[in-house]
Amino acid sequence: MTRQQVLDQYFIDARHKLIDIAAFLDRVDRAEGGADFRHAAFRTALKALGRRGPGRAERVLLSLSDPTTRPIAKAHGKGACGAWPGR
Question: Mean pLDDT, consecutive 10-residue segments, the chain of 87 residues?
């Protein structure tokens, strides 16, 4: 596809997601409470997204992923939380 075709095909969807992210960050900023590793990981992922060049999706995914290779003995919850707590 040409750049124009990619923009024609995907711009509106990407625009929607960008506005949704902005609204999410506004809600977090307005909310009371302490720091949370997910918010910090999200901000790190946004920085990775802002870097130019190929590989943005990989950099964003890796910024949210557990970099360790050793299995843990027991999971701390029933489901994934979407970001690595850094422990």
Answer: 97 98 97 94 94 94 91 76 82
pTM, entire model: 0.82
Task: Examine residue 42 and state whether it is found in any structural domain, yes or no.
Answer: yes
Same-domain check for residues 18 and 41 = no
In a domain, 77, yes or no: no
Q: Residue 27 burial (CB < 10 Å; 0-12/13-18/19+)? A: exposed
Question: How far, in whole angstroms, is CA 65 from its chain's centroid?
Answer: 10
Task: Identify which of 65, 64, 45 has the alpha carbon closest to the alpha carbon of residue 56.
Answer: 45
Do 14 and 41 belong together in one domain?
A: no
Q: How far apart are CA 43 and CA 64, in angstroms?
A: 10
